[in-house]
Specification:
This protein is mainly beta. It is built from ten helices and 48 strands.
Length: 781
């Protein structure tokens, strides 16, 4: 087998291909990247955020009711945007009564000899000469660091630095007022002084450094479903994310519900985001809602779209406007008079339904009129194919979007089966922005399959403009979603195998693609048992409902033989009506079905080899809004196609499933829906690519997903035969497929570096089984 690289001709520019995506889920911001150590610092937690919350969540009163009282009240707050604050009423002074907070992790991790910046707003009614003692203490009461301050009868901000002389993984910030009477507290805060680049209101250093070390080209922010899931009124407690709520002093940033089930302080807001992008060398790519919430079918009236137009225009001015403009002056007041150089704007997240696209166009047209150079990004929903996906692409072409945001999370085998997905995409269309993607898992096998897929993205750089893995962060104590690229707890963090694959691609992206191809390669390995047809049994079942199936008929389209089970009622959780696996490659299944009670409609399983390997046609599905076809491989799902559809209780539907080889078609009441090819899982002998780096280096990239080593003749057309070139090789190999990094072994799966020399333009190379290899050939000098 020969790998041939043409180094003489630049192909497509690779631009800003590889970046990152930050969304505050899994407590990625509060309790994560945002370095604030106090949970519920402003006493604004609310049952709207989470039914288990109250205004004292995260706080514990120290002392008996006879010694001290504690209540969260309103009226005369520090800032009306955050109206609640704590009133302590000291009845028996000198007893050590007060309050304490253990942060987000059952205790705060502190390091010996390092500073922790305490601040709070406070006032009191009497005994002004009596100090408030603030300390870091362990659970058993040992004091690690201590300071104090005295209060007046007016709100003032107090600051001091606590420096523990002993490390602890379970410290509590404790406030103990001296004297009698009422003491009022708000915005009780504790930050390490050792934040990323030393900023106040800063970021957790280890997490930000993991981002910096990736060398991403861009950073998408703030979501994700966080962008569009919420009330349209910006003043509502459960409002959609509004960037203007996240800038200015933190006291004026109103607490908001996160759709992921917790509270957002918005301390990590748009200003901090823009600064972070600048410091890690990533272009900002913010995403805004144009007044549509697909989760709850909320739509801003078309006659009231000016608010959402202004949201977009004002954000661009905040990022790029002169320091004497309205929003540019706010940026300057916050400490950054220079523009941030924003080039991209996403309008909408993963949107479905025609109402979104009418609103997208209104906002996009207004932005284009004022800022014609801004690159605008449309949406194709959270699916890889189907009606909403096609709707998104159709509107993107009509509205002349620069890019189209695609999202999908798939079984790793799907990435092998669909490696050539973008080969047929036209470079004349809007470019693909693969804004969220991952395979289900953080194992070496997941990372390996993702690496093979990324070479397909790179090979199609004429059609694919941007791509970012998702999600980025996960706090191990607050898991909403997994897999994730970076895991952390209160004092530890690690990059997954997926992280190190992404890092390799970002560090070695290059400026231009170079042509790379294999000659005399062995045949592909097919990992699907029968690649020409779908095999396995069928089942008629339900979601969270009871349904009556009748007129059921399974037809062998090759012989005409029919199997027609009797009418039956199926309940949620039951196996349903089971049919034997068809022997033919062409068959059809018809049935009439009615939802009698419950929710979310029906499911027809087919191609069922086991409980972990099957296909499913759902009718109703997620929030009773979809019909979809999903493939499960080794227990991990891949949604192959989706259309909007709602099941009406009591109404009878006529369903038809047609299978011809690996082609699947579905019909509801005679109307066609899905028409897809279920691709067999194929492993190519070697996935290859190459690029020209900014400094002139040649980067050869190869991924071997098989368990066979690949001995390869490497030919680099255009290199001089009588010259030696320095070579740096980054290799990931040697692990079992299911191995992964962890807190106990954070660097189990990381690249290693080897160095050698290349004489002339040809050499031999052996690519190890299950490996990712980047060969960088220096041409300087």
């Amino acid at each position: 087998m020969k790998l041939v690289i043409d180094t003489t001709k630049k192909r497509e520019p690779l631009g800003d291909l590889y970046g990152i995506f930050f969304e505050d889920l899994n407590h990625a911001a509060d309790g994560g990247l945002y370095a604030e150590l106090i949970r519920n610092r402003a006493f604004e937690f609310d049952p709207i955020d989470n039914p288990d919350y109250n205004h004292l969540t995260g706080w514990e009163v120290i002392g008996t009711p006879q010694q001290i009282g504690a209540a969260v009240i309103t009226g005369d707050p520090v800032n009306g945007k955050n109206p609640h604050y704590l009133a302590l009423d000291v009845h028996e002074p000198g007893q050590g009564a007060g309050i304490r907070n253990g942060g987000y992790h059952r205790g705060i991790s502190v390091k010996a000899g390092e500073g922790y910046r305490f601040s709070c707003w406070a006032k009191r009614e009497q005994d002004p000469e009596e100090p408030v003692v603030v300390s870091l203490r362990e659970e058993a009461g040992e004091t690690l660091a201590e300071g104090s301050f005295s209060l007046t009868d007016r709100w003032q901000k107090y600051e001091l630095t606590l420096t523990p002389q002993k490390a602890s993984g379970g410290a509590y910030l404790t406030l103990t007022p001296g004297g009698r009477g009422k003491v009022y507290l708000d915005f009780v805060s504790l930050f390490p002084t050792d934040t990323y680049r030393g900023h106040k209101n800063g970021l957790r250093r280890d997490l930000a450094e993991l981002l910096e070390q990736l060398h991403p080209k861009f950073m998408r922010f703030p979501g994700g479903c966080l962008v569009h899931d919420g009330a349209l009124d910006p003043e509502a407690r459960d409002a959609q994310y509004r960037w203007k709520n996240t800038v200015g002093p933190v006291e004026g940033r109103p607490a908001r519900r996160s759709n992921w089930g917790y509270n957002q302080t918005l301390g990590l807001g748009f200003y901090e985001y823009f600064v972070l992008c600048e410091e890690i060398g990533a272009k900002p790519l913010p995403v805004l809602s144009p007044g549509y919430d697909p989760h709850h079918h909320r739509e801003a009236p078309l006659s009231e779209m000016q608010y959402f137009i202004d949201e977009a225009l004002d954000l661009i001015e905040f990022a790029n406007g002169p320091a004497d403009s309205k929003w540019g002056s706010l940026r300057a007041d916050m400490g950054h008079p220079e523009p941030f150089g924003m080039e991209y704007l996403g309008i909408g997240n993963e949107e479905v339904g025609e109402p979104f696209f009418a609103r997208y166009k209104i906002v996009a047209d207004a932005v284009r009129e004022r800022y014609p150079q801004m690159k605008l990004i449309g949406s194709s929903g959270p699916f890889a194919a189907g009606g909403e996906y096609e709707r998104g692409w159709r509107h993107a072409r009509e509205d002349k979007a620069d890019l189209v945001d695609e999202h999908y999370y798939m079984a790793p085998e799907w990435m092998l089966a669909n490696h050539h997905r973008y080969d047929s995409f036209s470079p004349e269309d809007p470019k693909v922005f693969l804004g969220e993607y991952a395979s289900w898992g953080n194992t070496w096998y997941n990372a390996l399959c993702e690496a093979s897929y990324m070479l397909g993205l790179e090979r199609n750089a004429g059609a694919v403009g941007l791509a970012c893995y998702a999600p980025l962060f996960c706090n191990a104590d607050y898991v909403n979603w997994q897999p994730d690229m970076i895991w952390f707890d209160r004092d530890r963090s690690y990059g997954t195998a997926n992280y190190y694959v992404q890092k390799l691609f970002m560090e070695n992206q290059g400026s231009f693609r170079l042509e790379a191809h294999l000659e005399d390669a062995p045949e592909n390995e097919c990992w699907t048992k029968e690649p020409e047809r779908i095999t396995g049994g069928l089942r008629l079942a339900t979601y969270d409902s009871t349904a009556r199936y009748r007129d059921i008929c399974l037809t062998d389209e090759e012989t005409g033989e029919k199997i027609c089970p009797a009418e039956a009622t199926v309940r949620a959780g039951e196996d349903g009506i089971v049919l034997a696996a068809p022997k033919a490659s062409r068959f059809s299944l018809t049935a009439k079905v009615t939802e009698l009670e419950g929710y979310r409609g029906f499911k027809i399983y087919f191609g069922e080899e086991s409980g972990t390997d099957l296909l499913c046609w759902s009718v109703g599905g997620w929030q009773n809004q979809d019909t979809s076809v999903t493939q499960t491989i080794r227990g991990r799902g891949a949604e192959l196609s989706q259309y909007l559809m709602t099941v009406e209780p009591g109404r009878e539907y006529e369903l038809k499933l047609q299978v011809d080889g690996r082609r699947v078609r579905t019909f509801i009441d005679g109307q066609p829906f899905h028409d897809i090819i279920v691709q067999p899982v194929v492993a190519e002998p070697l996935y290859v690519g190459a690029s020209l780096a900014e400094n002139g280096d040649i980067v050869v990239k190869a991924v071997n997903v098989t368990d066979q080593e690949r001995r390869t003749a490497l030919e680099l057309c255009g290199l001089e035969e009588d010259r030696s070139y320095p070579v740096s090789v980054r290799i990931m190999s040697g692990w079992e497929p299911e191995e992964q990094n962890s807190f106990e072994e954070p660097e189990k799966i990381v690249p290693r570096t080897e160095r050698c020399e290349l004489s002339g333009s040809r050499t031999e190379w052996t690519f190890a089984p299950r490996s990712v290899t980047f060969i960088r050939i220096g041409r300087e000098g």
